[in-house]
What we know:
globular; four-stranded parallel sheet; alpha/beta; Transcription Regulator spoIIAA; 3 helices; single chain; 45% helix; 6 strands
Amino acid sequence: xxxxxxxxxxxxxxxxxxxxxxxxxxxxxxxxxxxxxxxxxxxxxxxxxxxxxxxxxxxxxxxxxxxxxxxxxxxxxxxxxxxxxxxxxxxx
Length: 92
């Protein structure tokens, strides 16, 4: 099972969410079900962004994969902690 890395946008909000959802769907259709989301350049995530990541995670798990997160800055990490998503995702 291969894992690909996806660079997250600087501002991950409703504008970027549908494009992200579509790219995840394409990756899964192409047999990639494990993703590493690189938040190195991401400074902000909103509830829509979180929702898309969670729904993408469910699709990956259904296909035998997972989503892992890396390089979360303090603000983005705090959002994941407040929503208890740190219990769902492996954060590197």
